[in-house]
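Q: A reviewer asked whether we had any structural model of the full assembly, not just the individual parts. We don't, so I'm hoping you can provide one. Inputs are below.
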Amino acid sequence: MKKYWIVIIITVGFYINGYAQTYVTKNGMIRIYSEAPLEKIEAVNRQVNTALLVPTGDFVFKVLIKSFNFEKALMQEHFNENYLESDKYPEATFLGKITNIKDINFTKEGTYPATVEGKLTIHGQTHPVKQNGILEIKNGAVTAKAKFNILLSDYHISVTNTLVNNISKSIEVTVEVMMTELNK
Amino acid sequence: MKSWIKIILGLAILGIAAAFLIYHFVINKPHPDFEKIKPYYSLNAKAFYNEFKTSKENAHKLYNGKVIEITGKLARIESADTLTIAVFVFNQGMFGDEGIRCTMLKKFSAEAKKLKPDGIIRIKGYCTGFNETDVIMEHCSLIY
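A: Here is a predicted structure for the entire assembly that you could use as a starting point for your response.
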């Protein structure tokens, strides 16, 4: 009985003392890149709202489509009005988990491989994703980095035949979000 | 010069001029000058935030993609990489502060960094929406 109470006290103690941690950022970065025969297109969003919960590994982010900035104004206009229809679908969301969270030591600086699995919703369409990336632990911050491709067709984003040589059907997505511990 | 050559030359010049104008004003048109654009709405900052908190869909339809002017009490100025962000805080949520985040135009970055917390400021920017915790405004400028 005494041993049982010791275990309870220690477990509660961990939570009170912050064993469960939340890492957040409101200015994560996502870059999208398309390379087609006639044109290279790139856009960056630096308003990515992200949270990582330890030790569950829950990883979420929300991106406002109108916060993607392109070099060319006309491309930004087409991206919002014709492809992503951002008036109708103003945001993209990822809800998932870092499945190997137990392999990551948040108290020791270093670079750790990470596998993320979850659901990505873009243009009103949800698609399962599983990707590899890394978590960098340095100076108390956790930076998640990943690079992967998505197919426009998976999210019902259609490119007209006239622009097939300007926009790739597969878009490269680069994620880099530097998170700090909440309330620290 | 024979008249048909003059016609072809004239059409060629018109064609080149048209191509140039299309390239310059359509294909290569510049981004809007957000500092100069007149705001669609001028609002109290807290009221603006509350509209999104109460009904995100209605507020999106009304304010997304538009230049909005807000007046309110500044919580702080943040720096994120090369960005300078004016932050208004109206709520505490599961993931920290919630309110309005205004990313400044580079031109206003130095000026914004001199602003004191708790001061009342007027700011204008392009509303990109609400991301469950904050209303986001970009390309922001200070108004005096």
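A: Points you may want to mention in the reply: Chain A touches chain B at residues 22, 24, 26-27, 29, 46-47, 49, 51, 62-67, 69, 72-74, 76, 80, 86-87, 90-91, 182-183 (CB under 8 Å). The two ends of chain A are 37 Å apart (CA to CA).
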